[in-house]
Amino acid sequence: MPSRKERVEMPLLRPNWPCLALAVAAALLILPLWLADAPAMPDYPARLAGFYLIHGGAQTSPLSGFYSIAWAPLPNLAGEIAVPLLAHLMPLETAARFFLSVALAMWVAGPALIHHALYGRIGLAPLAAAFFAYNVNFLWGFFNYCFAIGLCLIVFAGWIASKDWARTPRLALFAAAAIVLYFCHILGAALFLMLVATYEAGRRPIDWRHLFLDVSIISVPVGILYLFKPGSLADGGVEFDLIDTFVHRIESIVQWHFGAPAYLLLGVLALLFVGGLWRGKIMLHPQMRLTLIATALLALLAPETAMGGWGLHLRFPAVAATLLFAASEISLSRRLAVGAATAILATLAGMSAVLADQWRAFDGQIAEFRASLRELPRGSHLMAAVDTRDDGRVPNQLYWHFTEFALMDRSIFTSLMFATRGQHIIRLAPAVDGFAATAARGGSPPKLNLLDSLATGHVRNPKVRHELRYLLRFPCHYDEVLLIHANGKSRAVPGMLSLRHAGSFFSLYDVRPPAGCSVISATRP
C-alpha cells in the first residue's frame, strides 16, 4: 500500500510527468486547427474578414468604399493587433489559427499554474480542466474572449504565486497586466479583478484595509479606461433570461463540436467529482472557496445581453468549471493517478478526433461556397437569409457569416460584418452606413418568411423591425442574397429573387429591385 505522503503528493512516475501530460493535452486540443483548412466556427469568417481589412484590405478598391479602419483604445483588440502583425510573417489564415492555438494552450496552462501556485506542485485535477477548453465560446469563434480568459488565468496564477513579493512592484506589475487584459477583452480584465478580490477576501487573516487598497490600485487604471472609452458599450441595456438559458449555460461548459454538447462527459466528471469529495479523495483549497462561489454565481446569474453584446450567459460556466478543477487536489495512489491521467488524455484524443473530423467535412462546404463566389460581380452587395424550416441536424448558425468569405474573395459588401461602435475598429463608409448590422441584436440573418415584409418595409413585429431595420427595403440596397438551407432544399422564394447558383446547402439569388427603388450606385464597381 502506498504511504499517506505518496497518496497526497501524488507523484506521476517522475516529477516532470504532469508537465508532459499537460503538453500532450494542449497538443491534442490544438491539432484540429491544423488538420482543417478552416474551423467550423460561426464567427470565424467574420473575424478573418476583419483581420483581412486591417491587414490592408480596407485600402483596396472597392472595399475602401465600404469599410475603413478607425483605431481606438477599445477593450476588444487581442486578435485585431496580434493576427495582422503575425500575417507579416505567415499567411493570414495561418496567423488566425496560430492565435487560436495560443488561446487553447493558455486554457491548459492557466489551471495548471493556478494549481501549482496553490499547492506547490501540479497534480491530476488541472489536467482534467483541459476538457473545458472546448467550450461553446471557443466553438463559436469568440477569438478575443477566449484569448483574454486564457491569459487571465495565467495572470491570476501569477498573482497567487507572487504573494510574498514587495507590495509596490507587485501592484504596479498587476495593474499593468490588468490594462493588457482590458485591451484584449473587457471581460478578461473584469474576471481578473474579481478573482483577485475574492481570493484575497478568502485568505486568513483578512486585512480589509490592504485588501481594499490593493484591489483599488490595480482596478483604477482599468476603471479610467472604461470611463473614457470611445463609443458606448452600454448601448442595448441588460437583458436577463435565467430560466430559458439555464440549459444553454450547462451545455456551454464542454462540447464535442459546435452544437454538440458533451453531456455524457460532463455527467461523468460531475459524478466523479462529487464522489471524490464525499470519499475524501478530492480537496478544495480553502483560500479559493469564496472565488469558486463567486464564479459559480456568475455562471448561473450572468445576463444574456449586456454592454451591447450578446451571449454573456455563455461566457462564465466553463471558467467556473476550470477554476473548480484548478483549485482541487486529488489524492490517489501512483497507479490510479497514472490510469486516470491516461484516461483523460485518451478522452481528449477522442474529442480532438471528433472535432477534426467535423471540421474537415466542413472544409468541403467552404470550398464549394467560395468556388461559387466567382459568379458574383466584384463590389456587389450580398446579404444572407435562412430557410424558415432550416432547423435540423446541422446548426444553421455555422453559415451565418459565410458572406464574409465574399468580402475577402470578391471585395463584396456584406450585411453582417462586425462593425459595432465601441466594440470593433471596422467602420462602415457613409455610402453604406445604415445598411448593415451594427449591434449583436439583429446580427443574424433573417428567416426566409420575413423577406417579403422586409422588402416592402412593412414589418409588423416591432422587435423584429427594430433589430432588422438595416434590411428594410433591402432590394434597394442589396444585389445578391445567400439563402442557407443546410438541412434540405428551401421552399419557394419571394418573387424579387432570381436563382443564380444552386449549391448543396445554399443558393445564391440575384435581387430584382422594385420600380421606384433607388439603388446605391455610387459604390458599384
Question: What's the layout of helices and strands?
Answer:
Elements lengths: L3 H6 L7 H19 L8 H11 L12 E3 L8 H9 L5 H28 L5 H4 L7 H5 L2 H19 L5 H18 L1 H16 L6 H20 L18 H6 L3 E3 L2 E2 L1 H17 L2 E3 L4 H13 L3 E2 L2 E2 L6 H10 L1 E3 L3 H39 L8 E6 L16 H8 L2 E2 L11 E3 L22 H6 L5 H6 L12 E5 L12 E6 L3 E6 L14
Parallel strand pairs: 8-9, 8-11
Antiparallel strand pairs: 1-10, 2-3, 4-7, 5-6, 11-13, 12-13
Helix pairs in contact: 2-5, 2-16, 3-4, 3-17, 4-5, 5-8, 5-15, 8-9, 8-10, 9-10, 9-11, 10-11, 10-14, 14-15
Detailed description of the structure:
The protein has 525 residues and is an alpha+beta fold. It is 50% helix and 9% strand. It is built from 19 helices and 13 strands. It has helices spanning 4-9, 17-35, 44-54, 78-86, 92-119, 125-128, 136-140, 143-161, 167-184, 186-201, 208-227, 246-251, 263-279, 289-301, 317-326, 334-372, 403-410, 451-456, 462-467; strands at 67-69, 255-257, 260-261, 282-284, 305-306, 309-310, 328-330, 381-386, 413-414, 426-428, 480-484, 497-502, 506-511. The strands form 5 sheets. Strands 9-8-11-13-12 form a 5-stranded mixed beta sheet, with helices on one face. A two-stranded antiparallel ribbon has the order 1-10. Strands 2-3 form a two-stranded antiparallel ribbon. The longest helix is centred in the last third of the chain and has 39 residues, at 334-372. The protein starts with a helix and ends in a 14-residue tail after the last strand. Mean pLDDT is 91; it is low at 1-13 and 520-525.
